[in-house]
Design brief:
Elements: E1 3-10, E2 15-21, E3 30-38, E4 43-52, E5 58-67, E6 71-76, E7 87-93, E8 97-107, E9 112-123, E10 128-133, E11 140-144, E12 148-153, E13 158-164, E14 171-176, E15 182-187, E16 191-196, E17 209-212, E18 219-224, E19 231-236, E20 241-245, E21 253-255, E22 263-268, E23 275-280, E24 284-291, E25 300-308, E26 315-318, E27 324-328, E28 332-338
Antiparallel strand pairs: 1-28, 2-3, 3-4, 4-5, 6-7, 7-8, 8-9, 10-11, 11-12, 12-13, 14-15, 15-16, 16-17, 18-19, 19-20, 20-21, 22-23, 23-24, 24-25, 26-27, 27-28
Length: 341
């Protein structure tokens, strides 16, 4: 379907992280969007309040922000919460520091707002490339350029497990699945490593499954399906998309050369079970859908551009219930809606 941009907001640096979070009154016409930005001069995490107007335009206000130094990754527990209960966020910074925050919701007679309150600062031995937060335990997980994984409890400030991944080429992104029972990491050697969060330990670091593609490509980004715990999506250095089922060692879907440059960010469309969203350094954001057609055993794929820019795109995320997307590029975040034909 054709798409159109509804609004945009200039950022203080290159946007490298996007995630919608639910507010506590189930008002899906007004959601918060976490945006991480970082460049040589500006490092900050911002909380944007996005209101969907009846005119199909979007109104965006920058609500809160915290300044930090050298942000390389960020994650937040984006579940629906009870009134006043905090989200847990993690920010990975240059030098191996991992800061955790509580996002406390406050309200008065006029409006609701959020406050960032620091919980802990944990030191990791290597340069962190990615982090995530468990929706089941609030534990924080991170991976580094040497292929190591660290599981930490931000409230006790204890390192629970330190796992050496069976690769020396480094890990690019790590994610818990939707039930937070497993976590997966995308590597530079064409593999996705999967661990059971309930049994993995320093003494038992072996992955439950190693998913491998026959193509020699770096897996640059990774996403888990919001409702189907076994599904993963990854983007490669050559512009391919790969869908994985964590029960099998080979990709179940391979869309070759969708982009002309490395895929920088991927996510599933939560409104469907067969649509993938991707953003690339080639400046294109696309929606790709599996089309069964004549042969269910050999499906084809239909891809539609939803946004293009002359500058590299760095992150994409889909609205939880609307056919809309947030996309970040060099120094702005844009909001795009697909329109029915």
């Amino acid at each position: 379907s054709p798409a159109r941009m509804t609004s945009s907001l200039r950022l203080g640096g290159a946007g490298n992280f996007l995630q919608w979070v639910h507010n506590d009154v189930l008002d899906f016409d007004a959601l918060e969007l976490i945006v991480g930005t970082s460049d040589e001069q500006n490092h900050q995490i911002s909380l944007l309040h996005v209101t969907t107007l009846e005119t199909d335009e979007d109104d965006v206000d920058q609500v809160n922000e915290i300044a930090s130094h050298g942000i390389v990754a960020a994650a937040v527990d984006g579940r629906f919460i009870s009134h006043g209960v905090a989200y847990i966020g993690a920010i990975a910074m240059e030098g191996g520091l991992l800061e955790t925050y509580k996002l406390n919701q406050t309200s008065d007679d006029i409006q609701q707002s959020w406050e960032f309150n620091a919980v802990s600062t944990l030191e990791c031995p290597q340069y962190i490339t990615s982090c995530d937060v468990s929706t089941r335990t609030n534990r924080v997980i991170s991976c580094d350029e040497a292929g190591n994984i660290c599981l930490q409890d931000p409230f006790t400030q204890n390192t629970l497990q330190y796992i050496a991944c069976p690769t020396s080429l480094g890990l690019n992104q790590i994610r818990f699945n939707s039930s937070s029972t497993y976590f997966a990491a995308a590597s530079n050697n064409s593999k996705v490593f999967v661990w059971d969060d309930r049994t993995v330990s320093t003494a038992n670091p072996k992955p439950e499954l190693v998913c491998t593609t026959s193509q020699r490509q770096q897996l640059r980004c990774l996403a888990t399906h919001p409702t189907i715990p076994d599904l993963l999506l990854s983007g490669t250095s050559e512009g391919d998309l790969l869908e994985w089922d964590m029960r099998y060692p080979s990709p179940i879907t391979h869309i070759a050369r969708l982009h002309a440059a490395a895929v920088s960010s991927v996510c599933f469309d939560p409104l469907t079970h067969d649509t993938f969203l991707s953003a690339s350094l080639d400046g294109l954001a696309a929606a790709s859908r599996t089309v069964t057609q004549q042969s269910p055993s050999s499906p084809s794929h239909q891809s539609t551009p939803i946004y293009s820019s002359q500058l590299p795109l760095t992150a994409i995320c889909s609205h939880p219930i609307r056919d809309a997307f947030a996309i970040s590029g060099d120094d702005e975040v844009v909001f795009v809606r697909r329109q029915a034909t």
